[in-house]
Amino acid sequence: MKKFQWREAFTMIELIFVIVVLGILAAVALPKFAGISGQAENATVTAFAGTMSRTVGPMMWSTSISDGNEGSIKTDANAAHFNGRDLSAYTDNFPKYLDASTVNFKNCITGIGVADPFITKAVAGKMNLFCKDGDKSEAPRFVASKSDTYTF
Predict the structure, then answer these.
(1) CA 109 to CA 106: how far, in whole Å?
(2) CA-based angle 111:100:87, to the nearest 5?
C-alpha cells in the first residue's frame, strides 16, 4: 500500500497559467478604467452647466430684471463680473476642468447664433462652457460642449 503524499506548493505550470490569466484580465480591464476618468470630467462639466442653467442663471436673471437691465447678465463693465462680483460669488463648486480665470460674460450671445466659450477648458479639461444671455422673458442658459464654438 502506497502512502498518500501532500503537495507542499504549486507547480511551475500552475503559476505560469495564473500569471497568464491575470495578464489577460489586466489587458482587458485597463482601457476601460482609463476611459472612466475622461467620462467623469465630462460629466462634472455637464453637471456644472446644468446647475448654472437651473439655479445660478435664474438668480442672475431676476437680479438683472430688478436692476432694470431686462434680464441680461452681461451688463457689467468688467466682462468677468456680474453685478460687480465674479462667478465664484454665485457658485461654490467650480470644476477644476474649467479655467476660472477665463470667465467672460460678454461671450453670452443674444438670440440665436454661434457662441464663443463663456468659460474655456482648463489645460487638463476637454469641454468649454457656453452661454445664451437672458432677456425679458427667458433666463440665461448654459451648455457644455467639447467644441470651440456652440450654436444656440
Answers:
(1) 8
(2) 60
| Integer Cα distance of 125 and 103 in angstroms | 15
What sign results for the dihedral spanned by CA atoms 94, 99, 101, 107? negative
Contact 127, 121 (CB under 8 A): yes
Grid-cell match 460642449, residue found: 145
Nearest C-alpha neighbor of 141 from the set 130, 151, 150, 149: 130
Cell triple for 141:
442658459
What is the span of the domain harbouring residue 29?
A: 12-151
3-state secondary structure of 126: coil
How many domains does the structure of the chain reveal? 1
The rounded distance, in Å, linking the Cα atoms of 92 and 47 is 13
Whether the predicted model's global pTM rises above the 0.90 cut? no
Rounded-to-integer distance, Cα 61 and Cα 72, Å: 7
Give tens-digit pLDDT for 25-57. Answer: 988 888 877 778 888 889 999 999 999 999 999
Q: Is residue 2 part of a domain?
A: no
In a domain, 104, yes or no: yes
Of 50, 53, 73, 52, nearest to 61 by C-alpha is 73
